[in-house]
Amino acid sequence: MHRKIDMKYRLELKPLDLSLLNKLEEMVFGESRVNGEKLALIARKSFLFLIVYDGNRPIGFKLGYYIRDIQKFFSWLGGVDRQYRGQGIATNLIEIQEKWCQEKGYKTVYFTSFERFPEMISLGQKQGYGCVKSALDDGEMKYWFEKILPEND
User: What does 18-87 look like in DSSP terms, one character per residue?
Assistant: First the structure.
């Protein structure tokens, strides 16, 4: 069953904007790492950038893009402000992203996460993503999760 963002919040599909993305990263992760070069690469791909607002305040986001070489959609970056967690916002963003992917004809979605983000790992597993790979990355365990989407009706 597809749930929707609570009506008290607003969901927007946005064009890529480095300043906005950096603010969202800082809100969720406490730092921003995305640079203009990476964003320019994403802009040349089929991408989806969703932001959830409470009034005019952004409270959550999801950014992903299609990688043609491996024929998978990479759910690259996202999160929800700590004050708004536990309300299903991240789940809703994932579901909306998956529906968009299905409409585009994409068959597989994947994401990576590190052991320091157990909430993301748990959420991915609850949403049907299976761990397909793990490896050390700069001394920390990194995991790759993947989900094959059902056929679009």
Answer: HHHHHHHHHHHHSS----HHHHHHHHTS-EEEEEEEETTEEEEEEEEEEETTTTEEEEEEEEE-GGGTTS
pLDDT band for position 6 (cuts 50, 70, 90): low
pTM: 0.90
> Which residues, listed in sequence order, are joined to residue 48 by a DSSP beta bridge?
64
Question: Any idea where the domains of the chain sit in the sequence?
Answer: 10-148
Helix (H) or strand (E) segment spanning residue 141 = strand 140-148
Q: Is 114 within 8 Å of 141 (Cβ atoms)? A: yes
List the CATH code of the domain at 10-148.
3.40.630.30
